[in-house]
Amino acid sequence: MHTKLPFDTTKPIVGEASIEIDKPIDEVFGFIGEHFFDNYPKWAVELVDFEPLDGKQVFKGARAKQVRNENGERVESIFEILDFTPVFKLIFKGLNAPYKHNYLLTNNTENKLTRLHFRFELLELEFFMRPFQKLIRIAIEDGAENTVENIKNLLINQSH
């Protein structure tokens, strides 16, 4: 007999947010992508410790170790850059933890605005946490909104 669970154990929990930034796409990607290892700790305010493992150069396959403060707990993980496509895309995925970050950029050539679309995916959730899936999704969505706001504010304020 197959037991039907009241929640989906296979779908990732996703948080997405987009924002327009009044900067050219190459400048936004330079901040997010090319200088990722320098700037990630600036917008990921929950980072306690961050260390690039393959130097400061950003490339597909580059890895980094991070320690985050998540609700008072220190959570350590190593991630690897899966896709680095100047000036449009930076994607990395946890190697020892089930998450994925996507930073996608598009530009509007008429008004020189850049649209940043950020997507965070929690690829799997421990079984005992599944009943809290809705709360976790809300926290992830809030985190995605904070990420794009932080990046925009950092970019706008760096030129002043």
Please tell me about this protein's structure:
With 160 residues, the protein is an alpha+beta fold. The chain contains three helices and seven strands, in the order βααββββββα. Strand 6 (99-108) and strand 7 (113-122) form a beta hairpin. Helix 1 (25-34) packs across helix 2 (36-43). The longest helix has 26 residues, at 133-158. The chain starts with 12 loop residues before the first strand and ends with a helix. The mean pLDDT is 92.
Please report which band the strand proportion falls in: under 5%, 5-15%, 15-25%, 25-35%, 35-45% or over 45%. 35-45%
Q: What strand line-up does the widest sheet have?
A: 1-7-6-5-4-3-2
- H and E order: EHHEEEEEEH
Q: What is the residue-mean pLDDT, rounded to a whole number?
A: 92
Query: From the helix content, strand content and strand pairing, which structural class follows?
Result: alpha+beta
Assembly form of the protein: single chain
Number of helices: 3
Shape: globular
The tally of strands reads 7
In terms of per-residue confidence, which ranges show pLDDT below 50 for 5 or more consecutive residues?
none
**Rg, alpha carbons:** 17 Å
Helix content: 25-40%
Distance between the termini: 65 Å
Task: Give a short account of the largest sheet.
Answer: 7 strands, antiparallel
